[in-house]
């Protein structure tokens, strides 16, 4: 995170195979993310083992992390251990534990740039021609072990048959060829590894550039989507207020007419000196004014444009009460019987005004559905089942045609007459419920009518009692 790039050598816990990671920071300051490339060595190890090669690769601590012979893997080479110790510190635990102890290469003889060493294996003590090559860029070392058993056997046979000189010459020739092949193989392996790392690094740079562009484009798209969604919800609320306007005007006109009557009678009582009747009328006028203030205050809150920020605990009962207050006049004019069954202290996580908007939309749709019904009835009930809060709005209307059930949540789809709706209510409700982490669906009931079901995850805030 400080340098903008980094590498890591470790073991993948799922496969228990060695992996090498190259990572680059994405974005400037602050860092937006990290892109990583994983390099695998399984094929290289398999090729070494298939060819009968004995090749080891150790990290900076001298721990063998790649080997054609599994008995050497995850052991440290004793030459890398500090004097007077049998083990290096365990490190960060990136490798599985190998209880075989460190690898002790005992040097028997020096031959040019190589050494003849003896090392203990599961099959006994073996001698090898030993070469090393440092990969300084990575802090790794390649160790090459060439089997000396053939050479030793040839020497013994040569002594027995008296042809030691010829066999030694042949053995020397074979040794030179083998050493040359080993060096060529080591160089090829090093070059291949460097080429792979360079290629992956170039790909990573290109990927980083593309990723930065994609992240910026996605950020702009998300901002536009949020703005559009908020504007759409605001349009839906204004459409709902427009449908409620006649009923709200009726609801406010009645108290205003009553207030005028009470004021006129109060003047008469005042002229007569009847203080008790004057006080009673003033109390009635105050109650009517408070009722109108509650209606207009809630209308202003409901009509305000939503600016979603941090989600909050939402009391479902309060949301239902707010929705009922908004459409109370509409219910009165429709003549429908509305029953509510809402338990106390039931919370979900989201935004109170948005949940209220969803309930208003569903209740308005239910009122439209029961316009031509003899005994219009609407039920709103809230249930809790398996940590899910279900809000059901049920009516006894004509129901939704089967061919339209899959379309009711599409934007601008409506079965109402022209001028009766924009077809946005259920679409907006669908988006809000999905943002809450829930789902909404519609269905027809066997006994007739429609049932709209909202399912939201229950939420238990620490201060639920305060909110309640």
Describe this structure in words.
The protein has 468 residues and is α+β, with helices and mostly antiparallel strands. The chain folds into two domains: 5-216, Beta-Lactamase (2-Layer Sandwich), CATH 3.30.450; 313-468, Histidine kinase-like ATPase, C-terminal domain (Heat Shock Protein 90), CATH 3.30.565.10. It contains nine helices and 16 strands. It has helices at 42-50, 149-161, 164-272, 275-303, 316-326, 328-334, 352-369, 425-435, 464-467, and strands at 5-12, 17-26, 33-40, 55-58, 64-67, 106-111, 114-121, 124-135, 140-147, 312-315, 337-341, 347-350, 377-385, 388-395, 439-444, 450-457. The strands form four sheets. It has a six-stranded antiparallel sheet with strand order 5-4-9-8-7-6. It has a five-stranded mixed sheet with strand order 11-13-14-16-15. The longest helix is centred in the middle third of the chain and has 109 residues, at 164-272. It is rod-shaped and about 150 Å long. The chain starts with a strand and ends with a helix. Residues 88-93 have low confidence and may be disordered.
CATH architecture of the largest domain: 2-Layer Sandwich
The CATH class of the largest domain turns out to be Alpha Beta
Head-to-tail CA distance between termini: 46 Å
Biggest sheet features: 6 strands, antiparallel
Mean pLDDT: 78
CATH topology type of the largest domain? Beta-Lactamase
Number of domains: 2
SSE ordering: EEEHEEEEEEHHHEHHEEHEEHEEH
- Protein structure class: alpha+beta
- The tally of strands reads 16
Counting DSSP H or I runs of 4 or more residues, the number of helices is: 9
């Amino acid at each position: 995170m400080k340098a903008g790039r980094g590498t890591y050598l470790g073991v993948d816990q799922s496969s228990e195979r060695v992996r090498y990671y190259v990572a680059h920071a994405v974005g400037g300051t602050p860092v937006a993310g990290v892109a990583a490339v994983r390099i695998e060595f399984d094929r290289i190890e398999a090729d070494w083992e298939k060819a009968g090669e004995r090749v080891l690769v150790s990290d900076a601590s001298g721990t063998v992390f790649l080997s054609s012979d599994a008995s050497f893997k995850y052991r440290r080479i004793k030459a890398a251990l500090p004097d007077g110790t049998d083990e290096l510190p365990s490190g960060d635990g990136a490798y599985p534990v190998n209880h075989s102890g460190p690898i002790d290469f005992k040097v028997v003889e020096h031959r040019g740039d190589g050494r003849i060493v003896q090392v203990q294996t599961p099959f006994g003590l073996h001698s090898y021609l030993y070469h090393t090559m440092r990969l300084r860029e990575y802090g790794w070392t390649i160790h090459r072990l060439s089997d000396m058993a053939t050479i030793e056997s040839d020497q013994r046979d040569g002594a027995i048959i008296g042809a030691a000189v010829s066999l030694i010459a042949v053995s020397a020739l074979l040794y030179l060829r083998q050493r040359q092949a080993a060096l060529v193989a080591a160089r090829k392996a090093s070059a291949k590894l460097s080429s792979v790392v360079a290629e992956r690094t170039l790909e990573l740079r290109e990927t980083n550039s593309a990723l930065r562009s994609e992240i910026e484009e996605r950020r702009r798209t998300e901002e536009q989507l949020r703005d559009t969604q908020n504007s759409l919800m605001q349009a839906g609320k204004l459409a709902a207020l427009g449908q409620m306007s006649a009923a709200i005007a009726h609801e406010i006109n009645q108290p205003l007419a009553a207030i005028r009557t009470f004021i006129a009678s109060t003047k008469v009582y005042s002229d007569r000196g009847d203080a008790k009747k004057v006080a009673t009328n003033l109390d009635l006028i105050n109650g009517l004014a408070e009722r109108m203030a509650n209606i207009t205050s809630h209308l202003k809150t409901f009509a305000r444009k939503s600016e979603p920020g941090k989600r909050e605990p939402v009391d479902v009962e309060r949301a239902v009460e707010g929705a009922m207050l908004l459409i109370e006049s509409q219910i009165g004019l429709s003549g429908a019987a509305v029953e509510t069954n809402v338990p106390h202290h039931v919370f979900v996580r989201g935004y109170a005004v948005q949940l209220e908007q969803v309930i208003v939309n569903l209740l308005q749709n239910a009122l439209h559905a029961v316009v031509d019904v003899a005994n219009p009835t609407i039920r709103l009930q809230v249930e809790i089942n398996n940590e899910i809060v279900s809000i059901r709005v049920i009516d006894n209307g004509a129901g939704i045609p089967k061919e339209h059930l899959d379309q009711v949540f599409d934007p601008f789809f409506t079965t109402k007459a022209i001028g009766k709706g924009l077809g946005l209510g259920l679409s907006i409700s669908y988006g809000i419920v999905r943002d809450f982490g829930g789902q909404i669906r519609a269905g027809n009931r066997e006994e007739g009518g429609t049932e709209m079901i909202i399912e939201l995850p229950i939420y238990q805030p620490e201060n639920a009692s305060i909110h309640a």
